[in-house]
Amino acid sequence: MTQERSALAHTTVVRVATGGRPTSGDRVLTAARDTADSVPVVRTGPTGLTAMTPLLLLTSDGRTAFYGDPAPSTVREVVEELEKGAVPTAEADAVAEHDPGTASLPKPERGPLAVGRRDVLGPCGWVAPLSPADWSFVSTERTADAATEVGLLGRGRGDAATDDPVADVWDTTRAADGDPVVVCNANDASDRPAADGTLLSGAPMAVLDGIAAVAEYVNAADAVIYVNEAETELHQGLREAIDAAADTLPVVPQLVAGPDEFRASEPTAALEALEGADRVEPRLQPPSPAKRGLYGRPTVIHTPRTFAHVQRAIDDPGSIDADATDPGTRIVTVAGDVADPATVELGPSGSLATARETVELDGPFKMACVGGVLGGITRSLDIAPTAQSLRAANLGTDGVVELFDSDRCAVETVGQRARFASQENSGRCVPGREGTKQLTELLRDVYDGSFESDKIRELGRVMRESSNCQIGAHAPRPVTTAIDEFEPEFRAHTNGRCPSGTCTEKL
User: Signal sequence: where (predicted)?
Assistant: First the structure.
């Protein structure tokens, strides 16, 4: 049968949500298309749940059955049953009843897909990602004022307004001299945070719509999507999405690939890369990019997460609680010692502990690192996912929760992160260049019998307060929070003993 491009045009349809496992996804898609006769089969994007990828969704008249990573034989059986007029549910992983016209993936009552919310992630896995016909664009007729009125904050390490009101950045950009430009910073060399990749693969039109809306608000005629040069598949998908929506969007972004380097995703380092600088490093501030950014122009820099939240705020402002300290939702990737990572969306009144329900931990839970590679170490996930709650707990807000089991050594884990910071910093400022080296050496000394807790904490304070780059400022966080939680383990190492039994040599 011919390949159908729209998922929302049909009340009876077979969806195959791929992403993360493209080979098995193709097998499921082929089996479904070879079996289907009258029922359309549509490839959709990732849902965020790797363990259930590829995900087969069989929908008819307001009922959907979910089959995670099914065998081709199972695909043929259930598609044949759907062809006969019934949604097969006996062997399904989950079933959901919903409005037949919903544009958001319906939540079943049980299973990983029942965890959290499907607001910004709603289209992921449900709509045809490259089909404008499955998307109702807001940038063509409404302004981004709704996002400013709810007090939306920037999201992610690559956002120039991380955890700050986006309205402040936009107003600064509008008032600055010069022609403004909007940058979507989607370059992240770390494989930990998957929220941006999930949105760009599963709901690229939401991000493109949000970019255009912000560009219209700040009177920018130009926009850029900055992606990692190593993400060739994502690059191709985005190019197709941009081309498909070009005749609809009021502002069509240019797609530019940048270096596959951790430091290159820092907002001002991204500007250096976009300008073709030989050495990619963060810029000294002030001035902020909002006043003087790309090629000296006033520049708005947000992550795909932020732009998707902007689109959501414009499309359905009533869905966001403007009275919340962190309006909207937070998209979190759960990784670490788990069978399969998962990306889940949590509301401001939720708890990070809920995210654990989406994954299977390899062993007994010991600790978590919250906030990316340079996040904070904690024993408890009973914490709201808001920026304010995470900062109060000395944790990061980059949208990553790494779960570690009892085989993990706290000293070794944070030592590896300190060494990562010493290798990946730009070298531009002394705290980032020398501080990260000193921090690594102080942790190596623990294995030689010297644990100088006060010296580590003082070094961390100086680095946080004086570093020009995020790497230098955040590098002490895993170490100091691990000392808060596991100081006896550090002291045990000075006596040559690793309580976890995993350390065999120095860092």
Answer: none
Q: Are 310 and 210 in contact (CB under 8 A)?
A: yes
Give the class (CATH, top level) of 12-114: alpha beta
Name residues whose C-beta falls within 8 Å of residue 226's C-beta, 6 or more positions apart in sequence.
Answer: 183, 184, 185, 186, 187, 256, 257, 258, 270, 273, 274
Q: State the architecture of 330-405 in CATH terms.
A: Roll (3.10)
Enter the CATH code of domain 145-317.
3.40.50.11540
- The predicted model gives 32-53 an average pLDDT of 95
The pair of three-digit structure tokens given for residue 147, joined into one six-digit string: 């996002």
C-alpha to C-alpha distances, 102 to 88, 98, 135, 200, 371, nearest whole angstrom: 20, 7, 12, 21, 33
Secondary structure (3-state) at 441: helix
Q: What is the pTM of this model?
A: 0.96
Tens digit of each residue's pLDDT (9 = 90 or more) over 178-228:
999 999 999 988 878 899 999 999 999 999 999 999 999 999 999 999 999
Query: Residue 248's CB: how many other CB atoms inside 10 A?
Result: 16
Question: How many Cβ atoms sit within 10 Å of the Cβ of residue 194?
Answer: 26
pLDDT tens-place string over residues 265-291: 999 999 999 999 988 889 989 999 999
Which candidate, 422, 420, 428, 432, places its Cα nearest to that of 466? 432
